[in-house]
Amino acid sequence: MYDLRIKELSFSYKNDSRLILKDINMDVKEGEFVCLLGQSGCGKSTFLRLLAGLETSTTGTILLGDQPISGASLSRGVVFQDYGLFPWMTAGENIMLALKQKFPNQDKKKLKGLALDTLKSVGLDKSVYRKLPKELSGGMKQRCAIAQAFIIDPPILLMDEPFGALDAVTRARLQDLLLKLWAQDNQKKTVFFVTHDVDEALLLANRIIVFGQSPSNIIYECSILPGSRPTREAQFQDPQILQLRNNLIFQINKDVVSHISNQYV
Ligand SMILES: Nc1ncnc2c1ncn2[C@@H]1O[C@H](COP(=O)(O)OP(=O)(O)OP(=O)(O)O)[C@@H](O)[C@H]1O
């Protein structure tokens, strides 16, 4: 089971006594698509790093099933805004690296076939296999990073503003691709997706969580039932979604205002 239980999680970086996250409690069921919103610097990436096992909680626990998370694991794939591809390796070599980790005893030819199939599944031509990341556009690099994450097939996918640097059209395409890949899986992955964009969160999430700041805690949370998820076309016409959008913007704005006024007292 890949249910996640986060209990009384607090965190400070070792070189800094400031508390970044304070008393976070969250239960996430296997297969949920959770979007995390919050002001810059409130600790969203830090939270993902804790889920990835790249940092250890100062107090509190993160349980995956009934096991505490300790260290990185193939059960948790990570996609960052900067694509996470090694620049000195071709796109294909980057994907092969992930594949070799997942299938250490598998024949290289078979793995290459799998890598090419995966490139195709994210809409990339096989010629991309031999290209270096610097020869690819931002959208192509992000497709490779998504391919890399999905090929390992982790039950939990952690995505930190993966589409933040892309233009609107490429971003929309990749949002659709991500939803398609997520939905095609019988055993849906649990996704944690950090974004600054309320509309992106509304389009992708089953559940949206807003982090406040200094130290960060959950200040607002809402669910979007599977049948109520907006389509891209109807997103700005559905009264329920517009109401939710308003609430989210209101909560984020309230947090900004309280933070600004605290700075000047
Ligand atoms: N390695 C580190 N050591 C010390 N402090 C850090 C470290 N990494 C991040 N921080 C601090 O932790 C706080 C939260 O940073 P984090 O990157 O998690 O926020 P964020 O919400 O993801 O921000 P953004 O939306 O701008 O990416 C910030 O004050 C940041 O300066």
TrEMBL record:
Keyword Magnesium carried by entry: no
One Gene Ontology molecular-function label: ATP binding
Any one Pfam family match given in the protein's UniProt record, by short name: ABC_tran
Keyword annotations from UniProtKB, A to Z: ATP-binding, Nucleotide-binding, Transport
Superkingdom of origin organism: Bacteria
Tagged with keyword Nucleotide-binding: yes
CDD domains given in the database record: ABC_NrtD_SsuB_transporters (cd03293)
Full protein name: ABC-type nitrate/sulfonate/bicarbonate transport system, ATpase component
Source organism of the structure: Clostridium aceticum
